[in-house]
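Deliverable D2.4 — example input (structure tokens):
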């Protein structure tokens, strides 16, 4: 039996957004204007490029909001001879775009490079590699905007923000942070970014600079395969809740706080688990509705169990892929 907590929370009011101005049947034609490596010092194991696209000739111009995504149609056909399906990419730019006028959107694209399991030949993801290969001046077919919920609320100053990211899941938080700071919002903005190695951090210089410049911005990294610069051992994003509990537990106990999670599918499991361990029930209930039967053995939670027994409230925004 799944019981609901007595606290019913409609969640914050979200801004209106427009969606699907371009569809796969009527895509807009963007033009690539830049493609920059966005890992640290080009020494990362993976390849991630922030690809900037001029959308001034499309319906997307000025019509997207930080936190939304857009679609990309790679040319060619799949193994069934059908045109490649649209793939979604999160905007990494502010609502007014990379150019300040809403005409240039951007996204960090991670090349999907793997081996086929059966014959260990090279497996290259279609659209991520297509996008990363594009050069300034190249045209690209776009759809969108997509997404109506992974957004900063309509009254941003009424909330504090805990952003939790892994990998390219950092994208929306760059744009959201730009929007909040540009609007002079004085709320607490805490970002925890997880990556395997320090060299895999994305937009690291930007977030460091913002944290230095703005008292209300906190940038915390969680490196899973290296000890941390601040003396802690190897950490995943959720391990920071315990390692930094002096600052994070009070933040999570504060009624103003909203949690945004973006990145690898399944990352929410460990985050929910850690919240259940550290927060008193009345504070946990603001974010999660948990079946009381599973509260006794939080260590046993896995992805399947969480899916069936833990439901995020409207104060939690989740975009995992
Ligand atoms: C809302 C949203 C936002 C996103 N934002 C971003 C973003 O900002 N940046 C980003 O880089 N991505 C993002 N993605 C992911 C993106 O949409 C694509 O899924 C990703 O780029 C891979 O697409 P691809 O065409 O390169 O790979 P595909 O050609 O689609 O290949 C991936 C598929 O192949 C399968 N596969 C993987 N490895 C192998 C293998 N070794 N052998 C056989 N099959 C395999 C996988 O199961 C998967 O189904 C987002 C996704 C969503 C839903």
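Example output (designed residues):
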């Amino acid at each position: 039996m799944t019981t609901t907590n007595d606290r019913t929370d409609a969640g914050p009011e979200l801004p209106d957004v427009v969606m699907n101005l371009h569809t796969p049947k009527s895509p807009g034609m963007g033009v690539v204007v830049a493609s920059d490596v966005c890992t640290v010092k080009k020494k990362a194991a993976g390849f991630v490029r922030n690809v900037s696209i001029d959308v001034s000739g499309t319906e997307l111009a000025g019509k997207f909001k930080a936190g939304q995504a857009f679609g990309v149609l790679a040319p060619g056909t799949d193994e069934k001879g059908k045109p490649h399906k649209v793939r979604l990419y999160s905007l990494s730019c502010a609502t007014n775009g990379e150019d300040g006028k809403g005409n240039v959107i951007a996204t960090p694209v991670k090349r999907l490079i793997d081996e086929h399991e059966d014959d260990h030949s090279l497996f290259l993801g279609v659209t991520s590699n297509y996008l990363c290969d594009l050069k300034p001046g190249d045209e690209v077919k776009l759809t969108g905007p997509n997404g109506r919920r992974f957004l900063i609320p309509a009254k941003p100053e009424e909330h504090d923000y805990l952003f939790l990211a892994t990998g390219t899941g950092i994208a929306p938080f760059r744009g959201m942070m730009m929007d909040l700071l540009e609007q002079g919002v004085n709320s607490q903005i805490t970002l925890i970014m997880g990556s395997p190695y320090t060299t895999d951090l994305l937009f690291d210089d930007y977030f460091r600079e913002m944290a230095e410049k703005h008292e209300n911005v906190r940038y915390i990294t969680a490196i899973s395969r290296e000890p941390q610069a601040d003396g802690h051992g190897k950490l995943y994003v959720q391990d920071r809740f315990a390692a930094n509990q002096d600052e994070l537990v009070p933040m999570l106990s504060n009624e103003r706080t909203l949690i945004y999670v973006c990145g690898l599918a399944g990352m929410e499991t460990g985050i929910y688990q850690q919240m259940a361990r550290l927060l008193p029930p009345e504070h946990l209930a603001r974010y999660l509705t948990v079946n009381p039967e599973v509260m006794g053995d939080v260590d046993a939670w896995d992805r399947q169990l969480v899916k069936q027994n833990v439901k995020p409230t409207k104060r939690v925004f989740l975009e995992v892929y």
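The radius of gyration is 20 Å.
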